[in-house]
Structures are given as structure tokens and as C-alpha cells.
Design a protein that fits this description.
The protein is built from eight helices and eight strands, in the order E-H-E-H-E-H-E-H-H-E-H-E-H-E-E-H. The protein is an alpha/beta fold.
């Protein structure tokens, strides 16, 4: 059995934030939408650097999904951000009808997944999101295990044509994987196949 070691702990949502900011600098078609949780999703750096490409939708998650779907028609690559429960359970109809069935290039990015958000109670927790999203046609579901995988996944999905559900969390967790520098070539080799589809043990 392979043994894993780590030297630090980081929250996976920060990996998403770092990846999104890097994408903003390298891809002018990347835009971000948030449902009033900019700080919690670590999208604030993107908002500060690219205010013209950031859309604060407010507590209107269904509208956010519809807007994201529409933005793809003009060639944009929208990254939506809110808690996992609100990214899936609250807006499943919009994702099913407006994004999945028509294969829209929307990246649904969800933090605070699983039961790790204990202090916020059951209304903010969700376990069934993986099953719900895997049922949708053409939907890619990714659950990275640490900061490095989450950053790598965020960068890689911008190159993937089609809807994606990227699931991460708030707690700090050990960083087990190495930071992949050439993400574009890694995505086409082993990253998508061997790393990004691993489910986090904390959430299963």
C-alpha cells in the first residue's frame, strides 16, 4: 500500500480561489458569478483584480445558474460559486434544464461540501450532491482531496468543454499531492484520470 506524507495543511477552497485568480490572468473569457458568498468561496481576489468579469448575483442561486448558462452562448466560461447545498439541491432544476441537457460550458464550483460544516447545521450540509450531479447527462464531477488538487482541477476544467461540478470544502486538510506546474499537459495525461476524480474521504 502506498504511504502518503504531508508537511502542511490548507483548505481546499483556497486552492479554488488561487486557481480562479490564475485563470483570470491567463484567460479573458473566464468570468465568475457568486451568490453572496465571495469571501467564503475565496473569490474576492478575482473580484478585486477583474471587477468587470465578476458578477455578484446575491442570494438568488437559480438566477445565477440561468445567467451562467446564457453567458456561455457568447463564448464566456462562467465559474459559479456558492455552498454545495445551494449549488445543487436548491437549483437542480435549473442545472438539469438549462445547463446539463444543452451541454452548456458552465463550471459549478461548490464549497462547504459534505458534513464538514457542522457548526452551520443540517440546512447547509449535503451528501447527495455527488449522486445528483452524476445522474445528469454530460456532467463531469470532480472532488479533489487537497489544496494542490483543487487548484489543478480549477485550472484544468477551464480547458474542458462541457458542464463540470467541482466540489471542495472549508476545513484545512493535509496537502498530500504535489503541485503540478504544467497543468495543461497534465490535464491531458494523468491528472483527470488518476487524481481529480478521487473522492475525499472526509466527505464520503
Amino acid at each position: 500500500m502506498k504511504k502518503y506524507t504531508y508537511t502542511e495543511k490548507k483548505d481546499t477552497r483556497s486552492g479554488f480561489g488561487a486557481g480562479l485568480l490564475e485563470l483570470g490572468r491567463s484567460n479573458p473569457n473566464v468570468v465568475a458569478l457568486c451568490a453572496d458568498l465571495t469571501g467564503s468561496l475565496k473569490m474576492d481576489a478575482f473580484e478585486k483584480e477583474f471587477p468587470e468579469r465578476f458578477f455578484q448575483i446575491g442570494i438568488a442561486e437559480a438566477n445565477m445558474m440561468g445567467i451562467a448558462a446564457g453567458l456561455t452562448i457568447g463564448g464566456k466560461i462562467p465559474f459559479t460559486g456558492t455552498f454545495a447545498n445551494f449549488s445543487t439541491g436548491r437549483v437542480y432544476d435549473q442545472i438539469r434544464q438549462s445547463i446539463a441537457y444543452s451541454g452548456k460550458n458552465v463550471k459549478i464550483c461548490a464549497s462547504h461540501a459534505g458534513i464538514t460544516l457542522g457548526e452551520d447545521g443540517a440546512t447547509h450540509q449535503i451528501l447527495e450532491d455527488i449522486g445528483m450531479m452524476r445522474m445528469l447527462p454530460g456532467m463531469t464531477v470532480i472532488n479533489p482531496c487537497d489544496y494542490n488538487q483543487t487548484k489543478a482541477a480549477t485550472l484544468a476544467i477551464a480547458d474542458h468543454e462541457g458542464p463540470v461540478y467541482l466540489r471542495f470544502g472549508r476545513p484545512v486538510v493535509p496537502v498530500f499531492t504535489r503541485l503540478i506546474k504544467n497543468l495543461r499537459s497534465a490535464k491531458r495525461s494523468s491528472l483527470m484520470k488518476e487524481q481529480m476524480y478521487q473522492y475525499s474521504r472526509r466527505d464520503i
